[in-house]
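Run: sequence + copper (II) ion -> complex structure.
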Amino acid sequence: MRPFVMKELAVALVLLVGVGGCSKGTGAAAAAKAPVEEPRVIESGEIDPAWLSYDAATKTVNFHLIAGLTGLNGALNFNGFRDGGLTLTVPKDWTVAIRVTNHDGMLPHSAEVIPETKPVPTQPVPPAFDGAFTVPLAQGLSPLGEDGMRFVADRVGSFLIFCGVPGHGAAGMWVRLKVSGTAPAPFLTAAPAGKS
Ligand SMILES: [Cu+2]
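>> structure
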């Protein structure tokens, strides 16, 4: 219940500001301007519920994958996780829409869903699902760049979401995607530190 309380508080504050006649930060102004989204500042290893949303009616999951979100592993991380520390589980046959943003101000990054392999490839390989990669894959998205991917998770199994820029994935820039035949809805889990 707590998030709803917080939201109501935020709405109340916005209304108060509006009544006060201040033009800055009113709901109308914010909606018209579509402010640049900045991921919330979080610690490595922390899951932000805002990353994941889904529509059970259309069997569609939306996930925000953020390259270099934190300084972990020289920024070679997704959402503050490395070496499979984060797992996105989705039900089989759901459509997976992954928005990929490069939060790293220096290095290019990309993302590709690949079969689970050890060792992790040093460069792009054929994707595990049609369309499950960002463009350009090996060159990567420019710092602060953005792309997306959309695919149907049509078979059960364990997969990796890895950075296709040569060397990044092998250096630990990968998380996990699990397609489940039994999960009723998508969810995120974090592995204990050091486990992958
Ligand atoms: Cu990378």
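>> summary
The radius of gyration is 18 Å. The helical segments are 2-19, 27-33.
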